Amino acid sequence: MKILNLNEGSFPIELNIDIDKVDIPGIGCLQKTLKFEVSITKISKNLLKCDGSIKGKFIDVCQTCLKETEVDISNKINVILKDSSEINLDSSSQDQTHYQDLEYFNIDNFVEEEIALIYPDIVKCTDKCIEANQITEEKKNLPFKKIRDLID
Ligand SMILES: [Zn+2]
After folding, report:
1. What is the domain range of residue 113?
2. Confidence of residue 128 (pLDDT cuts 50, 70, 90)
3. 111 located within any domain
4. What is the pTM of this model?
5. Pairing state between β 97-100 and 75-83
6. Does residue 82 belong to any structural domain of this protein?
7. Number of domains comprising the chain
8. How much distance in Å is there from the Cα of 59 to the middle of ligand 1?
9. Cα(63) to centroid of ligand 1, in Å?
């Protein structure tokens, strides 16, 4: 577990993390090392900005035909970090915001939340596979979707 104190120290903080294991229920298997490269800048007290990129691939199963499918989650990271004490004070935020205790900021939790957000709601081997089967109603929450599949 990697903990950072984001209330003090010098900014920007450059992070270059290799992740070998991702512990998120309901998503595929991490194929290779996941790279998380970001720069954290301080905007004001209890408000920071995190920019960078995430690069990684998972092996999952097409939800339509059950074929083994590669899921590329490489994406840009562009997130506002706020102290969790502010979570109830925020009325509107159009930017993506991650709330956590900034004094004991757990990088692993942050990375896992980002992966969960980026990870596709529907895993499909090709676009055509999904079109052919006309899946129209999909819930955002993948783990629940998979549990439902098991029940069916
Ligand atoms: Zn398929």
Report:
1. 3-125
2. confident
3. yes
4. 0.79
5. parallel
6. yes
7. 1
8. 13
9. 7
